[in-house]
Amino acid sequence: MSKPEAKRDLTVVVGSGGIGLAIARRISSGRQILLANHTQEASDAAAKVLENAGFTVSAMVADISSRAAIQAVVAKARSLGPIKALVQAAGVSPSQAPIAAILKVDLFGTAVLLEEFGKVMAEGGSGVVISSQSGYRMPALTAAQDALLATAPPEALLELDFVKNVESTLHAYQMSKRCNSLRVRGEAVQWARRGARVNSISPGIIVTPLAHDELYGERAEFYQAMLKKMPAGRAGTPDEVAALIMGPEGGFITGSDFLIDGGATATSDADGRFTLTRAPLPTSRKIHVPGTQQGLRHARPPSLSRSATVLATLSRM
Prior knowledge:
This protein is α/β, with parallel strands linked by helices and 317 residues long. It is 39% helix and 17% strand. The model is unreliable at 273-287 and 295-317 (pLDDT under 50).
């Protein structure tokens, strides 16, 4: 009697955005793919793109604001094969949904996905959450608040005062993305028990349908200014951020978030306004040497201009 054919390893992609699909293409050679999206039409359309690229794809509906729906995705994934990768690319932006929906999908849904898949990942597997640079654009929370975002039960997250009292869709989105980057830290230990890793990436403006809605939505002026002033001088593409931490070469990386924004955050102040700050460097400064009455005069290297970035100033302090 012949042995049943072994099931192929599986990549699970939740959401069908450009970054998620780019990651799926990069990491899924020899694997099958399960796509889950908020409508069957969107799942089928994304599946067709991957099938035309040679992948074996299953497609299903999943509303990740529902734990039951997420558990259904987990059950379907387990029936298909060993789960070697989870790509959480589902979410809504400030221009696409009201506060409650953003918190339920981007914050709560992501937390539940990480919790449920952390129970079933195959050994050697890895997960990535597509977060956002927006998580870096709100004022710092307290250590206690960060700890709650990282470790509180998902259902309790929505009851936290500093979460449920957000005042705008932008603040809700920023809070959700801050939670995403902290949540992978909180879940990394659970995933490690199964020999798996989990991380997040925080992209800046990447050319996707979601980014298009922001670039031409109610905050268009802000995002257009960001593009003009960021060091990269352009938007990114999905393939530029795909799979950086998913392969075996990233085996030591878990519980971490990676900011990939073309330098946009580096050129913004604490309020999110884009102002590349420059400070003059002194021509020279004195260095006190113990046991001497006079300080030594330290000359400015001739290769430095009289005005340099704050980073250069700090490196001399």
